[in-house]
Amino acid sequence: KALRHEGQLTDWNQVAFLFRSVKSDRAVRLSRFLERNGIPVYSPRSNQFFDRLEIRLMIGALIFLFPQFPDARKWRKDAHLNIWDYYDNQCFKAFASELRKPEHSDLKDWAVPLALEHRALTTNTDYAFTGLFYRLLQFPLFSQYLDEQRLTSPFRDRRPMYNLALFSQLLNKFEYLHNLILFTPDNVDEQLQNLFNRFFRYLKQGGIDEYEDETEYAPSGCVSFFTIHQSKGLEFPVVFVGSLNIVPRKDYTRLDEVLQTNYLSRPPFEPLECTKYYDFQRLFYTAFSRAQNLLVLTCHEKQGRGRSPSKYFADHVAALPSWRNPDFQVENLPLAQVKEVNLKSEYAFTTHITLFETCAEQYRFFRELEFAPIRTSPILFGTLVHQTIEDIHKAVLCGETATLSESKITDWFNTNYLYLTKRERVYLASYIRQVALNQVLRYYRRYRGDWSHIRDTEVPVSLVKEGYILKGTIDLIAGQDNTVEVVDFKSEKKPDVNDPNDREKISRYRHQLDVYAYIVAGLTDQTVSRTHLYYTSEESGNPFISFDYDQRAINRTIATFDQVVGRIEAKDFAIADRPDKHCTDCDMRFYCDRKNWEFRSEP
User: DSSP class of residue 460?
Assistant: First the structure.
């Protein structure tokens, strides 16, 4: 706190604490002490996910919404699980205490009637646990954790929003495993048992790590708690090293002794009896060499049995100045910034740029924070058509053109449908399946006389740019006259190029083709001559909408791409206004309805 007050410490992430284990009682107690005193702690491997306030409040809220929970969780009258004490005392009580506060009266007014409805459920709902989770996010008790300023402020803890996102992923996984879409009068008690007695209990007992960003080893706004092994290769301006009470311990067995004595053909590099001392020194060499500006050796000093620091550190600690020593001038200590991890993020047109341009707030939740949507709305029809056409292309590229037939393609189509429905748990009516099959067969009949134009299919491509990696998957690369042409398949109705209402969609698709053409041109020495949209639904007319290669148009598309990526990297998710037509099916609509918006002014 003194370093921060004097101005050298500009972000809590400049400080790291290293221990042999971050799960030890001392490390856990220290992290809790720091947090009680306003210093957030990033310790993803400490298995404290279920101890976090935001998680306990969310679990408590879900319990409150089902008043039958104390009885429904019991499979017999005298049944008891230890985790019920956690639910009752740390989750439900915490939520109930908050609910009694005047500032949460709107949450109470919403929750109490819904809880009474759930107690005596008589009709099916249109939601399950994840649906309730997203409804709860609208209330300030939870929405306080989702403020976008947490992403950019160096002294704001970002962990709660990521933990809530992880919680949504857990609920989503539970509902997938149990094929749970909604509550019915017959399944609600059983699903309460499945979620709380089994799923959460398993996760809590096994331990679950908190959010950990591989691209950012020291998140802004938190001091870091790492094991010494975790810290290998990392550097921090200020490093506190704990675990100075430990001593070297034997970690070899009788079998190791037999192997070394009787079977090694040359003398050991390190004698077994010395290995524990060497390993001990290597471990703390790693710890002591992580500091850039200030290394602090810290322990709870104790003499006698179980002394701390142990005899292996006593002389080193005794020779160091105390932080209380007047000669230690905090204000004269310059501190470096945490080094940025030089990892470039990958961005694709449809999954990143289009989503961001549609709604940056939606991008923030579902791409940046990785909240799990209730339904991913898989486009089963289009995926089925794409995969079966890809099977045709692969057979052609493997030299198996002669084996192609309508019956074989129908077999591939049925196999694809079987696996897609098992994965997505979404189904098509028989007549819709026939429409999809007809589109595939129509494409086959169009080209079965000549497949020579096919160069490659379903090609994953990426291009490394200065600040990021541009990636995509190209449906088909064709070519004539020593040039290549990019083809993107669409299973929807072909738009009318003369209809003003269709121009925006065609323009968006053309931008996507521009990106693909840009990548292909950047990766190869081949000339891209044209790009095409191929509409498999077109029965008698021309299925193509084609575009000539236009370098200026492509440059404009890539410039827009660069601009959007720049905003994403800067955590700028402001929007000019709400895209209402996209809000209807968005899981975050309840949160957005209650949000105090500050809209971005258009340049």
Answer: E
* 3-state DSSP assignment of residue 198: helix
Nearest to 354 by CA among 585, 536, 565: 565
Q: What are phi and psi of 17, to 5 degrees?
A: -110, 130
Task: Please state the separation of Cα 261 from the chain's center in Å.
Answer: 50
Neighbours of 548 (CB within 10 A): 8
From the list 426, 381, 359, 372, the residue with the least C-alpha distance to 584 is 359
Q: What average pLDDT does range 528-540 have in this prediction?
A: 92
Within 8 A by CB and 6+ apart from 174, the residues are 129, 180, 194, 195, 199
Tokens matching residue 15: 């400080």
Burial group, residue 2, by CB count within 10 angstroms (0-12, 13-18, 19+): exposed
SS3 570: coil
Contact 502, 473 (CB under 8 A): no
> Among 309, 329, 311, 333, which residue's Cα sits nearest to residue 321?
329
Cα separation, 471 vs 462, whole angstroms: 4
Euclidean distance between CA atoms 245 and 235, whole angstroms: 23
208 falls in which pLDDT band (50, 70, 90)?
A: confident
Question: Residue type for 298, please?
Answer: T
Residues near 78 by beta carbon (within 8 Å), at least 6 away in sequence: none
Whether residue 212 is predicted with pLDDT greater than 80 in this model: the reply is: no
Residue for token digits 């600040």? 467
Q: How crowded is residue 137: how many other Cβ atoms within 10 Å of its Cβ?
A: 22
Among candidates 368, 370, 361, which has minimal Cα distance to 165?
Answer: 370
**Spatial distance between the Cα atoms of 274 and 281, rounded to a whole number of angstroms:** 11
Angle between helices 159-177 and 53-64 (to 10 degrees): 40
Tokens of 603: 């340049």
CA 370 to each of CA 113, 168, 230: distance values in angstroms, whole numbers, following the listed order: 31, 9, 24
| pTM for this model (two decimals) | 0.81
| pLDDT tens-place string over residues 344-390 | 899 999 889 999 999 999 999 999 999 999 866 558 899 999 999 99
Tens digit of pLDDT for each residue in 93-105? 999 999 999 999 9
For the residues 398-416, what does the mean pLDDT come to? 94
